[in-house]
Amino acid sequence: MGCSASKPYQGDATRGGALPASPQLAQPPQAQPQSQSPQQQQQLAPQTVETAPAEQPAQPKEEQPVEQPPQQPPAEEKPAESAPLARGVKDDETEAFGLLLCGAGESGKTTFTRQLKLKFLGGIQKEDRLSFVQTIRGNMVESMQQLIFWVERHDKEISSEFDEDVAHISELNAFDCEFSPELADKLKQLWQDAAIQEAFEHKDETIIPDHMDYFFEKIDELVEDDYVPSDDDVLRARIRSIGIDSVTLLLEGALIRIYDVGGQKNERSKWDKVMNEVGGVIFCVSFAEYDKPCFEDTSLLRINDALEIFKEVTHRENFKEDPFFLICNKFDTFSEKVRTTDSFTKVFPDYTGDAHDPEACRQYLVDKFIEASNPPLPDRPIIVYTQSALDSSQVVSNANEICKYICSNFFEE
User: Fold this and answer.
1) Which tens digit of pLDDT belongs to each residue from 85-99?
2) 260 marked as part of a ligand binding site
């Protein structure tokens, strides 16, 4: 499906984590980017359709290229009280406008999907929460194994009193072992060891999730027989996506179905199953992991893997007229890393800007993705959003804006 825009553009919907009410248009990717004030960026915002929600799905309309005039926002922009919001529907059968949610492994797209289910579909039921118990416990064992491996590889020394515990934990099948109180106590004691803490400070050199300290700090709760994962626990549980999941949203009578597909290399062959069912792509990138290696290939950085995937997907013939929504994910962690370390210029030695300015570094990466999509196509917009997948308000806002864009460009009122 084609987009109604008559010329290519890169819309940047967020700056520094802020979430304006609608996407903003920037210059075509072939032009040299210029710095703009927030007020100048907001002046480029397109108009959006805000009609009352309808109960039945609307019919797709014939595409008519229309260039929308810029809209002048008020000095202090606030969401209109009557602004339509998408709502979730438990419907996987009715024909809907499809969006492919994809990205490299560990991009945060599955967390994005979980947020949609939590906020739009009435949350996660207890039986589904319980299915995360083994995953969370396995995450902890696997992470400790990775920390031990880092210590050994760098010739550090864990306190000798833990020698037997280290040997025992290293031999476990992380996701198929009994998470007993004895094992939990060993993990808890090891976590406090100075060498293990040093290893965690270097977690970017490993495949350990950034937030594993969250679980280690509540390990006494996780080992209880009656433990039921909370929303925060579920969002932080690390599961390598297998197969295809979907969430269906309804906005102004338009059904929009988001297909979440696995990001690991062995799962990407399954993307073709839904390629012909979608009219747009939500591409999720973890900016925070620009210096972390891939799970399957530790010689390849995740950001470079994401760039290659984005290039491949944007050059597919069946997507040449479809909108792309680029999600710059985990911006909070990215900002902290940029401000407090020198890692950005180590990974990108050609970067000449302020290496400790999160917004400047973010824009540098965004430009790389826009360049990867070249040559620009006349009927395909690329709209950029910035978020933390753990921030439900940002995820909900972005999902709503994406739905409004699809509704206003592909469906009749």
Assistant:
1) 888 888 777 889 999
2) yes
